Amino acid sequence: KMLCMLDIRLDGRQTYDYRNIKISFGTDYGCCFVDLGKTRVMAQVSCELITPKENRPNDGIMFFNIELSPMASPAFETGRQSELMVKLNRQLERCLRNSKCIDTESLCVVSGEKVWQIRVDVHLLNHDGNLMDATSIAAITALCHFRRPDVGIQGEDVTVYSTEERDPIPLSIYHMPISVSFSFFQQGTYLLVDPCDREERVMDGLLMIAMNKHREICSIQSSGGIMLLKDQVLRCSKIASVKVSEITELINRALENDKKVRKAGGRCGFAESMPQERITALKTHVSPLEMTDVEEKANEIVLRAEAPPQTVPSPVLPGPGTGQVGEGLQSSWGLEEEEEEEEEEEEEEEEQQHKAEEEVTCVAEEKRGGNCKYLLRFTSLVPDVFVPSCQLQYSQNCTDKFRTM
Amino acid sequence: MAGLELLSDQGYRLDGRKATELRKVQARMGVFAQADGSAYIEQGNTKALAVVYGPHEVRMSRSKTLHDRAVINCQYSMATFSTAERKRRPHGDRKSTEMSLHLKQTFEAAVLTNLYPRSQIDIYVKILQSDGGNYSACVNAATLAVIDAGIPMRDYVCACTAGFVDETPLADLCHAEESGGGTSLALALLPRGGHIALLQMDARLHQDHLETLMEAAMTACKGVSKVLDQVVRQHLQEVSALTGE
């Protein structure tokens, strides 16, 4: 919350900044990995010839499936269809299928008998927030990357050519819908783009806007119990259009690179895209830091800071008969009421004994946790002092000093 | 699909309405005696039934109890005879689960849940006949049922759909207009403050048209809220007349 008000986030981003997006492809056509900061998602597209639906004999079928495996986060369970899974699946379906980004009529082979079923499987590998954006980017990139086998029709016979016989054909994609997620905090006062896992846990609600680079909105979905105002939604859509054009640029560049590498006959694939310099699996990227005014700031802070507190090498004697070793800190254990009562009792006792100068057996009291402050009361005869062993060195000094008194 | 003219040259739609006209809304509250609150609504040909139980103790899975608020549990289902083809799976499939989640989200924002800690409010909605605007009919029916149950809410929750054809926004879509492939926006609104509890849109729409579409949907919702208000007052009059006040 505090960070929102100061305009910085936990990882140093601004409110409208996306994390680093990295797209890499596997060896097969249609396999794509997307890294959104630490969130990792893998999408794989496959195709199959099946009979079409009865009421749509000329259209191919698109099927989307998102798998939330426990590998991604300890909060996910295998098997059970959790709410999050349904939500993500439905959002992806609405984003990609209802917006008609793929020409389904071109997937028809024999009308009424054989059409292609394109199946997109998305697996979550690591959950660090903003799963929806990562899955939408992965799904659309995988679809752009995918090549389906060529089909030849001669009369009634349909021959499916394998990759060796004829080059596979890419799918005809009209536009690339990409979703942008906005998280709201404190009843809509604060807004963040691309929430990470921690921000997601404390957010009030989420607004997902899917757009393509032609500034057409493909889907809007608000979730969580937030109340929005109309101009908030309009503002979000403006921000989304900017972000979407950036991300589309990135996807196109990644696809271009991959095409070039494959043409040049180079080795490509998942294993190649991971640098093998270290044994450790996680690799953090070198992030540039703003270092220009560091020295000035440091000097300022040093000048403004107070002198460090003097360490007390020997016990302080605040009054006759009392010795004090160390400064105590405030207890943060919340047992304040009890301690205060005890404190008051003790203080009364001390005063009485102080004045009366009665003989008291030495009591080493632990006042207020943390660095212990020991008030050692002594009688005129210096007895054996019972001090906990952790303060043994101090106790030695004490006893020596007081003996001389 | 291509042959249907959603908006004719004279400005009439398929069922003869003008672009901003809502369908006829008829509603009744207190339909069932067993439930704490119940309501039935007809929006054109879409018929929805809503039943509310609560607030009561959290029955299933005690772990869901919240110490400071009530838990709202929604279930959306469609009758098997509600659509043109018999529905084989009335609830449990993905679309129904998603609708239930959306209903829950909408009512969590509107109901004053912090007045009933550690309890549960159940809202069950069933669609008896589906002709477009399923979600809106559910929300409107559930609002009336919650009011009938006496559970306090921040404001009426009114929902309506809106579409966009030929640069004109259409209010309250019927099934043919929804499935025609054009844009459809579903909006749940709390009319007095203009707060949007749920916003859902499918199919492509250019960004510049978003504002006009949202305006049209919000106006339609305010129209629905007037009707609901009238229904509630009438029901109250009937009930107080019966009890002789």
Automatic annotation (TrEMBL), chain A:
Start-end of Acidic residues biased regions: 335-351
GO MF annotations, alphabetized: mRNA 3'-UTR AU-rich region binding
Main localization of the protein described in the UniProt heading: cytoplasm
Residue spans of biased composition, Basic and acidic residues class: 352-362
Pfam family, any one: RNase_PH
Gene Ontology cellular-component annotations: cytoplasmic exosome (RNase complex); nuclear exosome (RNase complex); nucleolus
Lineage top rank: taxon: Eukaryota
UniProt cross-references to InterPro entries, sorted A to Z: ExoRNase_PH_dom1 (IPR001247), ExoRNase_PH_dom2 (IPR015847), ExoRNase_PH_dom2_sf (IPR036345), Exosome_comp_Rrp42_subfam (IPR050590), PNPase/RNase_PH_dom_sf (IPR027408), Ribosomal_Su5_D2-typ_SF (IPR020568), Rrp45 (IPR033100)
Region listing for Disordered, in residue ranges: 305-362
Compartments, record wording: Cytoplasm; Nucleus, Nucleolus
Exoribonuclease phosphorolytic domain boundaries: 18-149, 175-241
Swiss-Prot/TrEMBL keywords: Cytoplasm, Exosome, Nucleus, RNA-binding, rRNA processing
One GO BP annotation of this record: nuclear mRNA surveillance
Family: Belongs to the RNase PH family.
Protein name: Exosome complex component RRP45
Organism encoding this protein: Esox lucius
Gene: EXOSC9
From TrEMBL, chain B:
Gene Ontology MF annotations: RNA binding
Keywords annotated in UniProt: Acetylation, Cytoplasm, Exosome, Nucleus, RNA-binding, rRNA processing
Pfam families named among the record's database cross-references: RNase_PH, RNase_PH_C
Compartments (UniProt record): Cytoplasm; Nucleus, Nucleolus; Nucleus, Nucleoplasm
Listed CDD domains: RNase_PH_RRP41
Primary residence: cytoplasm
Domain of life: Eukaryota
The keyword Acyltransferase appears for this protein: no
Cellular component, GO annotation: cytoplasmic exosome (RNase complex); nuclear exosome (RNase complex); nucleolus; nucleoplasm
SUPFAM superfamilies according to UniProt: Ribonuclease PH domain 2-like, Ribosomal protein S5 domain 2-like
All copies of domain Exoribonuclease phosphorolytic, residue ranges: 21-152, 155-219
Any one biological process term the GO annotation gives: poly(A)-dependent snoRNA 3'-end processing
Entry similarity comment: Belongs to the RNase PH family.
Subunit structure: Component of the RNA exosome core complex (Exo-9), composed of EXOSC1, EXOSC2, EXOSC3, EXOSC4, EXOSC5, EXOSC6, EXOSC7, EXOSC8 and EXOSC9; within the complex interacts with EXOSC2, EXOSC7 and EXOSC9. The catalytically inactive RNA exosome core complex (Exo-9) associates with the catalytic subunit EXOSC10/RRP6. Exo-9 may associate with DIS3 to form the nucleolar exosome complex, or DIS3L to form the cytoplasmic exosome complex.
This protein's name: Exosome complex component RRP41
Protein's organism: Esox lucius (Northern pike)
Lineage: Eukaryota, Metazoa, Chordata, Craniata, Vertebrata
Gene: EXOSC4
